[in-house]
């Protein structure tokens, strides 16, 4: 029997036994109290028929050369020897860089890829393209794009929301009332970028509940918090949270429960918000009755909740999902304003929290940086907010607003992607297809025949992390893992590093890219840097070999945070915030000066284009929530057993309230068609009372599988979502919400295409 090998993934550490080729058994890391079952997608995906076994080039690209093509996504692929594929690609890179310059290459390459510090796909591609002369980058992210841009104006930086959220321990010990706008979903806490050693959200929620903490979930989905919290459920119309928060503020004002002391000392601009809440700005007082007409939450519930908030140590949290909608800046900003009105920011277990689902909120954070692969310098000064990719490709030279500036889109000829799946993560995938068709050449490295690889011209097979050595540690985590390869690579696949090295040698930038190091040399070099940093802290870490043999190493940590902005509360002069005033900006004159109607100087209720109060409901009366999946991370390993078991007639499950199913004459397990003006997809129906009436929930990540009319046969919600930015300020993605209608699918059920490799020319 071979010995078990410890490895790390975004959804947890695990031990695996293999015969060198196949994984025979996996077991979660023995120190993980609540391991994630997503782990069980790994063995079944490993040698799945959709693994890419060797390099391929799209048949139309070989026939006609580079250029726009509507065959992308439908074409056949020609298998090539590695040397031939890399020679051809090196020539194409030379042509693009010499004819159009580095400004014509989009290498933002957004995506989570796999755990591992060295084989981190984005670092690899950025390093390579920087050696080539640079690339057009994508800034911000799909997770918290609006927060990233808004928060520097409000609290000086996004960082407090990544590192100072009160820990679950602080909540269990100090919070009396926790109001979670958007929840703290266990499925989201299962994943952490770079890895997670101990899942513990459910345990802490249980402890908090036993200690008497009262949880109130504000969400259209009841399971956005674990049962252990025993939460009360308030289910507003999706997208109406800002109205609800404004009315809570109205009660605090009218009952004189506002902490003027806190506002005067730590905030600026409250008076303008108060004027708006009282209706002195627009003639509309934001009363609980007003909020009831918008959110459908009864006014008495709002009155009572506000009084309870003022009477207890209260924590208000806003999830990342709330800002992933049109005007997503508003609930976040208003959440901070509301917590400021209560005056508890900086007190243990009180104040404000954001993005309460990353595992890093449950741990004592590490005190030091961990080494990463240096990416080099990008000499191209052009970038786009990451979610503007289709706009950029469809409007070269077009202008758009961002952070108070007017920018122009570059003219992109080549897209090079490594470690992401835009045909999963972007909105309005039909539009993205048109955008990709306009390109001269598309290059993708991935391990699987995802929808993105099917839309590429060059497809280069990347190893999975289980097939290579790496160093693993998650965001904020303190346990470093020796991620040892468990099996040899599938087919002829290579690490991204090896692929880029071989290309780099052909392009005479080999030395610059590799610095003459093998993978093991790099791992040793990165570890030695960490060791040096530790020795400066008077800590003697084991040698690389000792660490590699033991398998893990515990880095120093600090106490878990008790509350966000504690230091600022303790001393607002010494720890002034990075805002122009150094305080929390409830009104931002900087944002006001941009003159954007869709994001003014203070938080406001702005009616979204698509929500249950809009006219569009005449045709599309259901509000679809396209949230993160339970059975996989994004689209990763959708072919794996655990993800596949959740499907209904091979389609992604769509949840609907029984009243809505009855109105449409639908039964549990029916295959349904979900549609709107932008597109359609099939899904398998799950009738559930955990979904608010009027709402349907379809998780992201089912591999996009369009038929000849563009209908996704599998159930990817981004075939229905709008490619609409949050606002002119952030230009962030809004994939969480869309209006749709659902009907029974009565035609013969089409076979999925995406679960098999594309047509290969022999
Ligand atoms: P993943 O499925 O993680 O999705 O979007 P993202 O593109 O990150 O894609 C990673 C890809 O990398 C996979 O295809 C995987 O096989 C590949 N890969 C893994 N390891 C390696 C490697 O080592 N090398 C290479 N070359 N490839 C590798 C996620 C994005 O989706 C995110 S973060 C969010 S928060 C968004 N959420 C929503 C949402 O809430 N609603 C909608 N409608 N849409 C969303 N999209 C966004």
Automatic annotation (TrEMBL):
Coiled coil spans: none
GO molecular function, one term: oxidoreductase activity
Needed co-factor(s): Mo-bis(molybdopterin guanine dinucleotide)
Annotated Molybdopterin dinucleotide-binding domain residues: 622-735
Domain Molybdopterin oxidoreductase: 51-505
Keywords: Metal-binding, Molybdenum, Oxidoreductase
Name of this chain's protein: Biotin/methionine sulfoxide reductase
Region: Disordered, residue numbers: 709-732
Pfam name, any one: Molydop_binding
Family the entry assigns: Belongs to the prokaryotic molybdopterin-containing oxidoreductase family.
SUPFAM superfamilies noted in UniProt: ADC-like, Formate dehydrogenase/DMSO reductase, domains 1-3
Domain Molybdopterin oxidoreductase N-terminal: 7-45
Lineage: Bacteria, Bacillati, Bacillota, Bacilli, Bacillales
GO cellular component, one term: outer membrane-bounded periplasmic space
Statement: the UniProt record of this protein carries the keyword Transmembrane: no
Example of a GO biological process term: anaerobic respiration
Composition skew (Polar residues), residue ranges: 716-732
């Amino acid at each position: 029997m071979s010995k078990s090998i410890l490895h790390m993934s975004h959804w947890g550490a695990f031990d695996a036994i293999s015969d060198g080729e196949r994984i025979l058994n996996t077991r979660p890391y023995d120190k993980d109290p609540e391991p994630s079952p997503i782990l069980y997608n790994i063995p079944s995906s490993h040698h799945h028929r959709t693994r890419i076994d060797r390099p391929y080039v799209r048949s139309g690209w070989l026939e006609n050369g580079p250029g726009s093509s509507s065959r992308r996504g439908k074409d056949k692929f020609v298998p090539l020897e590695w040397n031939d594929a890399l020679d051809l690609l090196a020539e194409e890179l030379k042509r693009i860089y010499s004819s159009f310059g580095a400004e014509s290459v989009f290498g933002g390459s957004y995506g989570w890829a796999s755990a591992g510090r060295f084989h981190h796909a984005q670092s690899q591609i950025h390093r390579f393209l920087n050696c080539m002369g640079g690339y057009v980058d994508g800034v911000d992210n799909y997770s918290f794009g609006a927060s990233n841009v808004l928060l520097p104006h409000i609290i000086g930086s996004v960082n407090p929301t990544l590192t100072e959220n009160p820990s679950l321990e602080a909540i269990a010990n100090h919070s009396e009332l926790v109001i979670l706008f958007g929840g703290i979903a266990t499925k989201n806490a299962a994943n952490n970028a770079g890895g997670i050693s101990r899942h513990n959200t459910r345990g802490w929620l249980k402890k908090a509940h036993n200690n008497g903490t009262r949880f109130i979930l504000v969400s259209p989905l009841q399971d956005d918090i674990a049962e252990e919290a025993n939460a009360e459920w308030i289910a507003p119309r999706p997208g109406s949270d800002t109205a609800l928060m404004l009315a809570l503020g109205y009660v605090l004002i009218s009952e004189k429960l506002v902490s003027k002391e806190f506002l005067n000392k730590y905030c600026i601009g409250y008076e303008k918000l108060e004027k708006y809440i009282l209706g002195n700005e627009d003639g509309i007082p934001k009363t609980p009755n007003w909020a009831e007409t918008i959110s459908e939450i009864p006014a008495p519930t709002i009155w009572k909740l506000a009084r309870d908030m003022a009477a207890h140590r209260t924590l208000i949290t806003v999830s990342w999902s709330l800002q992933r909608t049109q005007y997503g800046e508003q609930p976040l900003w208003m959440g901070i304003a509301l917590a400021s009105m209560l005056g508890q920011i900086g007190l243990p277990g009180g104040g404000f929290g954001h993005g309460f689902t990353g595992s890093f909120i449950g741990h004592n954070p590490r005190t030091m940086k961990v080494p990463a692969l240096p990416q080099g310098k990008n000499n191209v000064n052009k970038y786009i907010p990451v979610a503007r990719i289709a706009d950029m490709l469809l409007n070269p030279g077009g202008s758009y607003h961002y952070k108070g500036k007017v920018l122009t889109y570059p003219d992109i000829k080549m897209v090079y992607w490594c470690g992401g799946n835009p045909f999963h993560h972007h909105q309005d995938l039909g539009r993205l297809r048109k955008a990709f068709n306009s390109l001269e050449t598309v290059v993708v490295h991935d391990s699987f025949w995802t929808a993105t690889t099917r839309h590429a011209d060059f497809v280069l097979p990347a190893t999975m992390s289980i097939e290579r050595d790496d160093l693993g540690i998650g965001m904020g985590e303190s346990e470093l893992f020796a991620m040892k390869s468990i099996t040899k690579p599938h087919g002829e696949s290579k690490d991204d590093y090896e692929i880029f090295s071989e290309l780099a040698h052909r392009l005479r930038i080999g030395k610059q890219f590799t610095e003459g190091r093998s993978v093991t040399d790099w791992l040793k070099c990165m570890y030695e840097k960490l060791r040096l940093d530790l020795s400066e802290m008077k800590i003697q870490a084991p040698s690389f070999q000792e660490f590699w043999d033991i398998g893990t190493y515990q880095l120093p940590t600090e106490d878990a945070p008790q509350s966000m902005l504690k230091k600022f509360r303790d001393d607002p002069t010494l720890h002034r915030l990075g805002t122009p005033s150094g305080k929390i900006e409830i009104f931002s004159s900087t944002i006001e000066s941009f003159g954007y109607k869709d994001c003014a100087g203070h938080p406001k209720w702005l009616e979204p284009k698509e929500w249950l109060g809009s006219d569009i409901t005449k045709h599309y009366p259901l509000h679809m929530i396209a949230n993160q999946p339970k059975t996989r991370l994004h689209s990763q390993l959708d072919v794996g057993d655990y993800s596949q078991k959740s499907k209904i007639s091979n389609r992604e499950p769509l949840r609907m309230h029984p009243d809505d199913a009855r109105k449409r004459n639908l039964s549990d397990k029916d295959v349904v068609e979900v549609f709107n003006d932008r597109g359609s997809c099939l899904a398998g129906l799950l009738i559930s009372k955990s979904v608010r009436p009027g709402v349907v929930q379809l998780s992201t990540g089912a591999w996009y599988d369009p038929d000849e009319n563009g209908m996704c046969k599998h159930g990817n919600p981004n075939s229905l979502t709008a490619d609409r930015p949050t606002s002119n300020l952030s230009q962030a993605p809004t994939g969480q919400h869309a209006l749709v209608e659902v009907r029974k699918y009565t035609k013969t059920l089409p076979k999925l295409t995406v679960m098999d490799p594309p047509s290969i020319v022999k």
